[in-house]
Amino acid sequence: MPPPSLTAPTTLDWGRTPYREAQRLQDELVARRLAGEIGDTLVFTEHEPVFTVGLRGGAEDHLVWDAGRLAREGVEVVRTNRGGDITYHGPGQVVGYPIVSLAPRQDLHAYLRFLEQVLINAVGSLGLAAARRPGKTGIWLGPRKIAAIGVAVRRWTAYHGFALNVDPDLAHFGGIVPCGIGAADGTVTSMRAELGRPVDPAEVRKVLAAEFWAEWEQFLRGG
User: Fold this and answer.
1) Which residue, 142, 126, 144, 143, is CA-closest to 201?
2) Full DSSP string of 9-30
3) Could you tell me if 45 and 17 are in contact, meaning their C-beta atoms sit under 8 angstroms apart?
4) 29 catalytically annotated
5) Residue 51: predicted pLDDT
6) Residue in 179, 188, 207, 209 annotated catalytic
7) What is the dihedral of CA 135, 212, 95, 194, to 10 degrees?
8) How far apart are CA 5 and CA 210, in angstroms?
9) Residue 185 has pLDDT above 90, yes or no
């Protein structure tokens, strides 16, 4: 039997990582994907508490907590090169980082919609009817945001990705204006809050991976 292809699609689980370490590891995977050393790769991780500031103008203005409160709460602030505003990552989230080539379909807008559909399908199979919200990235249950998306692209290789709130400390979102969305425009929620019961993160990762790879080839074909 021939050995498995080094460029076959792969799913990795990094466990819990500090955000800066995950950035470094992502950069390594992006370089390897650009060099053709690996195939399209979906990484799952869970971060230590952190507010990440995206490239959108004015994103840093949406940090609410001062240095003292950040220290007391144990939340780091990191500037990042992904698109979007400021968001929170922490224990209880499932974070997905697809390191994938968009060369066959160079359409970033379509890729964002693809990620939204993967998330909608996944939470739908787990009991929640989420949807897009016009003019806003991510997925929603009415006015309540349950997953955020922010990506970057280098020579049509995409990285960064999405964060699905399974059971994070929702109080930490009070330290920011999440994704620049004020209280009058919406709130943040989690799968546990919506379902009223614990949710197994391992099951969520399994479902997300299945939905991602099931949709990926169709996406590349323009479907």
Assistant:
1) 126
2) -EEEEEEEE-HHHHHHHHHHHH
3) yes
4) no
5) 92
6) 179
7) 70
8) 20
9) no
